[in-house]
Amino acid sequence: MAPFPVEHYKEAIASKEQITPILLKILEEGTAKIQELLEQEDYMAHIYAMFLLAQFREKRAYPLIVNFFSTPGDISLKVTGDVVTEYLRRILASVCDGDDSLIKQLAENESADEFVRSAALAALVCLVATGEKSREEILDYYKALLQSELSKQSAFFCAEIVSAATDLYPEEIYSEIKEAFEKDLVDETILDLKFVDQKLAQGKEKVLAELEDKRYGPIGDTIKEMEWWAGFREPLQKQVVKKKVGRNEPCPCGSGRKYKKCCGA
């Protein structure tokens, strides 16, 4: 893979007004032709667009990004890789302008990838961290989800609800969380009730102070966010792969990208 295009990014950021319509069009076309993205091994324009539009706080990108990740199945995960698990929550929070309606829609979309739905749940925590939503409002939403049929249909989704709520110090909805564990609705390979109890034992002030961490903040500098990715660093591209790795498997270098798009390129 080529080095991270720093200069191109600087030019794009400097030409924000001119490039924004182009970035929006990239997302529209990417959603319409998402299946084709699987075959375009080096194509990353849709990922670049998401990060830049998030940095620009572009509200018009909000429905486009939600539409992209609402694609049924795991295809949106396959064509974005680690973006879903590491950045999507912050991207969504950056472009929504405090409107969580589409984020909730994505979280409740049973046909969307489960990791995408998890990122949507976590995006609500980001909105609390930035002061765009109150902690009480979002905890009430998580409570409603725990009481809904959605939490009963997927142990993974239920665990992600609990995980997101735990980040907000969930004392007000602890009884609903405990009941979910008692009914065996939570995937305990993700977290158990002991973990929730440990967080509560830390105290509200300490837990909520953790929301100041970068992982809850908006996308501020796309270059700093992306340039360190393993796939852009030459030494990691040349490391020896000691075991046979399938071209569609995760790259062993830890970049989060498929082997064929990273060290196997």
Can you give keywords for this protein?
mainly alpha, single chain, globular, 265 residues
How would you sum up this structure, described in words?
The protein is mostly helical. The chain has one domain (6-227). It is 58% helix and 0% strand. It has 17 helices and no strands. It has helices spanning 6-14, 16-32, 34-37, 45-55, 61-69, 75-78, 82-95, 101-107, 114-129, 135-146, 150-153, 155-167, 174-182, 193-202, 204-209, 222-226, 234-237. Helix 2 (16-32) packs across helix 4 (45-55), helix 2 packs parallel to helix 5 (61-69) and helix 10 (135-146) runs antiparallel to helix 12. It starts with 5 loop residues before the first helix and ends in a 28-residue tail after the last helix.
